[in-house]
Amino acid sequence: MTWLRRNLLLLASLGVLVYMLIPNVVVAVFSFNDPKGRYNYTWESFTTDAWMNPCGAQGICDSLGLSLRIGLIASLTATVLGTMIAFALGRYRFRARSTTNLLIFMPMATPEVVMGSSLLTLFLMMGIPAGSLAVTIAHIMFCISFVVVAVKARVATLDPRLEEAAADLGANPGQTFLRVTLPLAFPGILAGGLLAFSLSFDDYIITNFNASPSSITFPMYVWGAAQRGAPVQVNVIGTLMFLIALAVVVTGQVLASRRERARA
After folding, report:
1. What is the pLDDT of residue 221?
2. Is 208 strand, coil or helix?
3. What are φ and ψ of residue 40, in 5° steps?
4. Is-contact 66 134, C-beta < 8 A?
5. Over the chain, what is the mean pLDDT?
6. What is the pLDDT of residues 15-60, one digit of tens each?
7. Residue 147 in contact with residue 82, Cβ under 8 Å?
8. Rounded to two decimals, what is the model's pTM?
9. Sign of the dihedral through C-alpha 88, 94, 99, 101
10. Local structure of 93: helix, strand or coil
11. Is the Cβ–Cβ distance between 199 and 219 less than 8 Å?
């Protein structure tokens, strides 16, 4: 009982982690299934056909490519803009600072249905047609808030004495920012960029409001295919995306631990 009380939090955390990973395991297992009908819900037999031809389903790779393209553009743009906003909010005092903080928080608290319909109305008023351009702008607008929060949290932990030391050693403001401030803030910037990409790639509701029939993203493709039986290739791509994300996280943790050991 003493051991159980001492490790109760660890066991509970492991249980929650396993519970969260069960859907990913099911998706990965059924990516090797050979369904007899349209629906991939019952295990029939093992096959690697879907892995050998992940683009076998009509339109699936086109929708995946569009999602990746929009995600990259939206995450890069939101990361640049969000980083600048985070530094402004974290380092400077100005008259509208509290109002800006409130406006940054609003997209995170607003339901996606409300945001999607509002953006659609805005685009129609501005004459921007529904399609990939409207979807990309919409993704940039709601991803900026998440980048600002991630980068601002990192900026708040930076020690200003390091920048003062760089200035004492003769570095100008530009050199100080590029060689001291930016490397220290980079983990927060990277986290914000990865979060923005995952949110953009995964979004369905806002995208559905602003997309056109010729700009079907991967989440929209999955939703539409599920009505008539999603192909096994959906499981393959889902498994690949999960493995890539897992590899990025593990690589980041390994590099961080190596840096900590090098400093020690």
Report:
1. 92
2. helix
3. -100, 60
4. no
5. 88
6. 998 999 999 999 999 999 988 888 888 888 899 999 998 888 888 9
7. yes
8. 0.88
9. positive
10. coil
11. no
The pair of three-digit structure tokens given for residue 178, joined into one six-digit string:
């590029």
Cα distance between residue 172 and residue 188, in whole Å:
24
Q: Please give the Cα distance from 64 to 49 (Å, whole number).
A: 19
Encode pLDDT of 134-151 as tens digits: 999 999 999 999 999 999
Hunting for tokens 């100008």 — which residue is that?
172
State the number of CA atoms in the 13 A half-sphere of 201 facing the CB: 19
Specify the pLDDT at position 83: 94
205 Cβ contact partners less than 8 Å away, ≥ 6 residues apart = 112, 113, 116
Look-up of token digits 């519970």: 19
Radius of gyration of the chain (CA): 23
Beta-strand (E) ranges in the chain? none
pLDDT > 90: percent of the chain:
44
104-112 long-range Cβ contacts below 8 angstroms, 24+ apart: 104/144, 104/145, 104/148, 104/149, 105/145, 106/145, 107/141, 107/142, 107/144, 107/145, 108/145, 108/146, 108/149, 112/203, 112/205, 112/206
In the block, which residue shows the tokens 């993704």?
139
Q: pLDDT by residue (tens digit) across 231-250?
A: 899 999 999 999 998 888 88
Report the SS3 class of residue 33. Answer: strand
The position carrying tokens 């999960």 is 242
Alpha carbons 203 and 8: distance in angstroms, whole number: 36
Q: How far is CA 205 from CA 25, 95, 131, 139, 212, in A?
A: 25, 35, 14, 11, 13
pLDDT value at position 264?
63
